[in-house]
């Protein structure tokens, strides 16, 4: 369910993963299965354009194939992220293009994902290395997200609007921007 050039997403931290998945299934959600996502992240070498890591590019390896994503965190809100994403086949050429345009690969991330869809809202259960389970809700509007959260018993007063890198740094004290590897085998 891609939403054209705008990511409408929120997250809830440290959720009861097992209970929430059971609730989703009881409500008729479709289970799209589990995956291990491997992301290569790129930041721009022009620090003014980079704007303190508010923009990045990502090449994501998943069992369904590879995607390229450009993100720009414009505000800490459900609708505050510009996102352009598309499937790719030629990673080597894309990497060469990114380097030529001033982007450099800075980190490899891994995240375990389990995806469900209830009505029109995606529930992505994510586990990052050394971090308790998180669920991200993504949909077509903030109202849809609020409604879906209420259906499964998530308290909107506990919603996290900051993007994952900020959450990792501020909440879990992981210096994500200083790391080259943030994987289940190695954090350095």
Given as residue ranges, the uncertain stretches (5+ residues, pLDDT < 50) are none
Number of helices: 5
**What gyration radius follows from the Cα positions, in whole Å?**
16 Å
Strand content: 35-45%
Protein name: CYTH domain-containing protein
InterPro entries: CYTH-like_dom_sf (IPR033469), CYTH_domain (IPR023577)
In short:
The protein is of the alpha+beta class and 188 residues long. It has helices spanning 17-26, 47-50, 91-100, 142-151, 164-170, and strands at 6-7, 9-13, 30-44, 55-62, 65-73, 81-88, 103-118, 121-127, 134-138, 181-182.
Helices, strands, pairings?
Layout: E1 6-7, E2 9-13, H1 17-26, E3 30-44, H2 47-50, E4 55-62, E5 65-73, E6 81-88, H3 91-100, E7 103-118, E8 121-127, E9 134-138, H4 142-151, H5 164-170, E10 181-182
What does this structure look like?
This protein is of the alpha+beta class and 188 residues long. Helices cover 22% and strands 41% of the residues. The N and C termini lie far apart (34 Å). Strands 1, 2, 3, 4, 5, 6, 7, 8, 9 and 10 form a ten-stranded mixed β-sheet that branches. It is built from five helices and ten strands, in the order ββαβαβββαβββααβ. The protein has a single domain, classed as Beta Barrel (Hypothetical Protein Pfu-838710-001). InterPro entries: CYTH-like_dom_sf (IPR033469), CYTH_domain (IPR023577). This is CYTH domain-containing protein.
